[in-house]
Amino acid sequence: MAAEPRIITTTDELAAFCELAKAQPYVTLDTEFLRERTYYSRLCLVQMALPPASGPKAAGGPAVLVDPMAEGLSLEPLYDLFRHTATVKVFHAARQDLEIFFHDAGVFPDPLFDTQVAAMVCGFGEQAGYETLVKRIVRQPLDKSSRFTDWSRRPLTQAQAEYALADVTHLRAIYEYLSAQLKKTGRESWVAEEAAALVDPETYITRPDEAWARVRTRSGSPRFLAVVRELARFRETYAQTRDVPRSRVFKDDALIELASAKPLTDEDLGKSRLLLREARRGEIAQGILAAIKAGVETSDLPKPVPDQPGLPGNAALSQLLRVLLQAKADAAGVAPKLIASASDLDAIASGVRDVPALSGWRAEVFGNEALLLTQGRIALSARGGAVLVVPVG
Questions:
Q1: Where is the HRDC domain (predicted)?
Q2: Distance from C-alpha of 92 to C-alpha of 143, rounded to nearest angstrom
């Protein structure tokens, strides 16, 4: 019978474990959370595991579950560990985890290692999920039966605890393997560059004034967009201050309907087909009407936000850039998606130069030659199944 997983429920216990972690070269971490009923994720569990005693085949070090919902428990010892730069903090697909810690305490793990990013750099493809890495590196199956469980319920079941611990115990071997591969290929700085973007506070700040730019609209009318802007601003502010999902205020389709119809009275608002019943009265209804009035009356009209930077006349060049990207990604053994997105390629084709693919390690792998291609200084040629870069002139 499996040993009972250790669950930390006091600040002193957490502090003692974090002191152990500070003496280690790395610690693996993961979180479980809920977000269905809130704007900000509600942290329900933190998993931590220390390295094996000596090497990846040795017995694993201690692994624990930390219950942030336990009465009186402070996560400050964990945040102190995050600030301890001698210990690498290892996550898989860290963005959602980091968002929680940033909004809860304004702190990021330093240094950070994201195994999802490292796997893409090491040639595991664009869909290098944790389960895939466990199968390919650790060569063990992974029980995902508790994936959609309610992590806020207490007590945790044995199955929940074992599932949660597996997310950090297997991560040790994955980290050691990927870290060794990066050292061998000299690409450690590539992953560090990606980690720097992950710990940029701007990644996790959603400003109500900018929320309208994420709403997909078909009309580019400045007045229509002004109403969209005011509605999106109200919705984001309301959702943030009351910690409710923005869809619980009103969904995008309702926002578009409101911006088109521009109701200015309670009676007009009641005619909406898509607005939730709760939004047709009270504080939300008054906020909607005020936002529409502000959008109708403002002289500060926004300019349309293009869906893609690319222009129709550059479609052929975009396609050539896609061919070049695939060829360079294959040669480097890196997932193309990590180097450049489709919108990045369209932007480059239309003359935009403030694109991630044109700086840092991406420029070395792809961006520098992408610019030469747009300037007509190189061409692409096919030989058998390979794509070759050919100088022009």
A1: 221-302
A2: 17
The pLDDT value recorded for residue 251 is 95
Cα–Cα distance list, 238 to 39, 241, 245, 249, 276 (Å)? 10, 5, 10, 8, 15
pTM: 0.87
Q: What mean pLDDT is predicted for residues 368-389?
A: 91
User: Are 124 and 24 contained in the same domain?
Assistant: yes
pLDDT at site 145: 72
The one-character DSSP state at 382 is: E
Which CATH number does the domain housing residue 278 bear? Answer: 1.10.150.80
Helix locations, the chain, DSSP H: 11-22, 76-83, 95-105, 115-121, 130-133, 158-185, 188-198, 222-242, 246-249, 252-261, 266-269, 282-297, 315-332, 336-339, 342-349, 360-362, 368-374
* Tokens describing residue 302: 């926004």
Are 173 and 32 contained in the same domain? yes
Question: Does 359 have pLDDT greater than 50?
Answer: yes
Question: Residue 156: which domain range?
Answer: 7-203
- Tens of pLDDT, residue by residue over 216-239, are 988 889 999 999 999 999 999 999
The answer to whether 26 touches 10, Cβ cutoff 8 Å, is no
At CA 268, angle to CA 266 and CA 272, rounded to 5? 105
The H or E element spanning position 364 is: none
Q: Are strands 88-91 and 63-66 parallel, antiparallel or unpaired?
A: unpaired
For residue 32, the cross-strand partners are 45
The tally of CA atoms less than 13 A away on the side-chain side of residue 209 is 2
- The total number of structural domains in the chain stands at 3
* Residue 377 and residue 351 share a domain: yes
> pLDDT tens-digit profile of 261-276?
999 999 999 889 899 8
Considering the domain architecture, whether residues 197 and 241 belong to the same structural domain is answered as: no
Q: How far apart are CA 337 and CA 341, in angstroms?
A: 6
Q: What is the CA radius of gyration of the chain?
A: 25
Between CA 203 and CA 213 the distance in angstroms is 16
Pick from 62, 114, 108, 103: nearest CA to 82: 108
Interval 41-99: pLDDT, tens: 999 999 999 998 765 554 567 999 999 999 999 999 999 999 999 999 999 999 999 99
Interatomic CA distance for residues 156 and 334, integer angstroms: 39
Quote the tokens at residue 355. Answer: 């694109």
Predicted local distance difference test score (pLDDT) of residue 310: 43
